[in-house]
From TrEMBL:
Gene3D superfamilies: MetI-like. The keyword Nucleus does not apply. It is a multi-pass membrane protein. PROSITE patterns: ABC_TM1 (PS50928). It comes from Pseudonocardia hierapolitana. This is Carbohydrate ABC transporter membrane protein 2 (CUT1 family). GO terms for cellular component: plasma membrane. Residues 66-256 form the ABC transmembrane type-1 domain. It is found in: Cell membrane. PANTHER family: ABC TRANSPORTER PERMEASE PROTEIN MG189-RELATED, ABC TRANSPORTER PERMEASE PROTEIN MG189-RELATED-RELATED. One of its GO terms (biological process) is transmembrane transport. The chain crosses the membrane at residues 68-91, 103-122, 134-156, 177-199, 235-256. Keywords: Cell membrane, Membrane, Transmembrane, Transmembrane helix, Transport. The keyword Cell membrane applies.
Amino acid sequence: MRTAGTYLLLVLGAVVTLAPFLLSVQTALKSPQQFASEPVLTPPAPPTLENFAELFGDRYDFVSPTVVTAQVVAVILLGQLVFSVFAAYAFARLRFPGRDALFWLYVATLMVPQIVTIIPLYAVFADLGIRNTFWALVLPYVFGHPYGIFLLREYFKGIPGDLLDAAKLDGAGTPRILWHVVVPVSRPILATLAIITVVTHWNNFLWPLVITSGRQWQVLTVATSALQSQYNSNWTIVMAATTIAILPLTILFLAFQRHVVRSITITGFR
């Protein structure tokens, strides 16, 4: 009975979690006439892709926000992985004065809410003349993040020192050790950091809303928000846009869930 009760609670939690996403997809597959005339939970009969075709048509033009979002996420992901690996390895394995104090001071910036830094960042980018540009979207995030560096540092500290010493005895320098030793054994945690980075910046809304204007550099979240305010009665189109935003993240997680599970066993070097 106890096991059955546990599974029942898990099933209920899964239903509550997945219900909004399933409702979004179901609504996106309905025609506006069916959505207006039938209860919300009624399945689409028949399912239609007209909302998606209209979303990417001339009226809404969701191709540009999708491409811009993909480009922003790709650049930020590359920068986060490269600079986080360098910084985390330095904090975990290299010795220099003030290393630990500098690390914890950097990690302490996680306590600062994003909203506090929005105005100073906006002022800096406006003075530099790069407001409403591609680089304005990526520069605040491309050089690493305290959470990502903390995550990798803890993992790197768990790598056996004998493994790194053996590479040093073979004449390997720090770049070679990073590329040929540390990165290969850290694939699970790097995959986890990649997923966190992609999800975070694919869903980023506040900074793109503040630093950009117009359609040229509009990302998916801002475009969907504008869609809701402009066409509030056409919920089938809005849900189609939401489904488009969710789909890549779902595919990403399904493809890399094995690495995410493996990364939980951070101390699993045997």
